[in-house]
Amino acid sequence: MSYWEIFSWVTMVILGIGSITVFILFLKDIGQILKKFQEEQK
Amino acid sequence: MYSLATIDYLIIIIYLSGMVGVGLWFAKKHTDFDDFFLAGRSLTTPLLITTLISTYYGIDVLFGDTQLAFTDGVVAWFGYARPTYAFFLIAALLLAERLREDDFKSLPDILDFYYGKKTRYVGAVTSFIYSLPALSLYGFGMVAEVTLGWEPITGMLVLGGIALIYTLTGGFWAVALTDSIQFVMMCLVIVIAFPYAMSFIGGFDTMIEILPQSFFDTMGDLNIFLIIIYASTGLSILVEPTFYQRIFAARSYKNVRNALIIGIFIWGSYDWLITILAMSAKVGVLQGTLPADIAPDAALLTVVVAALPAGVVGLFLAGVLSTEMSTLDSYCLVAGGNVSYDIYKPAMKPNATDHELIKTTRYGILLSWVLGFGMAVQFEQMLGLWVFLSSILISSMLVPIMLGLYFKGFRKPLAGFLSAGSGLFSTIILNIYIMKMGKFDAIEETYVIKWFGIDFLQEFVMYITVPISLIGFFVGLLLQKGRSR
Asked: Which residues of B touch A16 (CB under 8 A)?
């Protein structure tokens, strides 16, 4: 396995795990944001 | 064109409906202009990561970068993408904190603060031109043509029209939230596509065997001057209007810094994988499994659509649409803000209400979309259009913004105005001149003109226009007596 290939698989893992983690954190924040909008509506 | 399965169409329709739904949900929820344009300055780190990455990754990277990877190999990452990470780091550690010190809302706000109204208007026009969604619309045309068999113009109208609807109605909240969904989709489809593409060409070792050695040369066999210009398009991040908008919309400087530092790893990984995917398209062409006449900027699309199974193709296309939409909506919104907040309010109606500003921003969004559509129809290839738009922004804004931010003694109105004005004017004139008088070179994939025995590429314009902007700045500094602002 060449260094090029190893690097490619590593970037795939970083991109996959990184994007899912960030999205989970975003979902946590979005709950608060939507709550804020609902409070302003009331 | 590839035939899509029903499940693929279904995924695409659900995705598009969801985006419009988000826009409509936010339509009546804005309390003021700050809320509409900057999401109430309350973006957290995860929201900043998702919106920064999905906005900055539009056509320029997905197709421009892969075009270079398809024709020249890994130099697309080392020479074109990698330098931008250095600029992101500079932005994270030096620029963002400085920008958060004052209560700016837009890039022209900074010019106004340091140099006065005239320079603000030049900045607003520059930002407006740069933010025209021509690249994204061009991409929609290509996606629709390659995958759905539509005429490019139909693709631009239908797909670009959907992004227009939710941007018009939902403002920055809709943009930021759709960006977040689009972020995870665009990243995951590339992650899924990579092993499929490797399997399609027979593994990574096959790629190394089949492609010429120059494809694995980190600087390729590109002209050194062209590499410098491609790398310096990364400078645009230092004066990028959508990037500035996100800095201003953040809850704090720390949120921006953390988002950029984490983002660099995701950016780098994404760039690398799309570079390899485009190179696998080249392998497919050489093996005869992909058509020999595929356009270099459609290479990524072609190989992925050929390699993925039904259902996953729909997901991939929704991801590609995400990449485009997240860019188009953000740029349209900035252009709309340039019209309302940067020109209409200071020049025509200083006491405009928030309601009037939001309404004018919506007109501006619409105007930018229409003009962007006109440009997308005119340009022949994407990398050239990206370099043209970047050169306008860098040539006009880099010198006055950076010198104004960091050197108090340089904040003289004439200096800012001459620098921004001469940079903008010279870039437009030179680009038009080269496109009219030069010839399109199919090998270099750009317009070329012969000057003093040298082949001068359209991409080289910045070698002339940035020094012009710098000279303009110092001439203004010398001509204007008195103390700086």
From this structure: 187-188, 191
